[in-house]
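Predict structure. Input: TGS domain-containing protein, 217 residues.
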Amino acid sequence: MEIITGELIAKDIQQCDKIIEKLMPDIEKKNLKIAKDEKAIIDKVKAGLEANKAVRDLEWSGKEIETLNKHSFMTAKPVVYLVNIGKNEYIKKANKWLPKIAAWIKENGGGPMLPYSAEFESEVVDQAQSTDKEVRNKIATEMGAPSMINRIIGCGYKTLRLIHYFTAGADEVKCWTIRDGTRAPGAAGVIHTDFEKGFICAEVMKFTDLVEQGSEQ
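Output follows.
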């Protein structure tokens, strides 16, 4: 993990140098304030990286974040640590490396750590012969441990600040993924841009009320 993190930091430092190189003509020849402000932010990024700190672990103002989002630094992205261990170790919940990995993660910015076994999950899928979650969970329990697939997916959504919603018709139900905090017009635009442009209103109800009443009518 240290090697991977080091490589990502090195890549971001290279990107900082390229950004600064492009900004310098506007600073030296044109004395543009916007270029100076951006360089100050990139200098802060580079200083943090050279101190072995990921961009996501530094403190940023809203204005600085707008600038950072333009450049998509590798170490600005959220991280989920998936630790693949042996099938028997996963079932027994015993692996000598997990405490050390957890300690390293805590010392290096933190983040969710999910131990799982690719071998175990593969066998669950082979035996279940189904995409049904309940069937897979039943097979996994019979094999001695829970499946981690749903937790991995859920953790990925949460870490990326994504949520989903469903549309239902007579013939099919579809799931749509949006960023948490997206307003109703933007959510409609994921289906089709015309829905966002011509958005009028959204009718809101509690799911429990829908179940209790049996329909939208």
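The CA atoms of residues 36 and 206 lie 50 Å apart.
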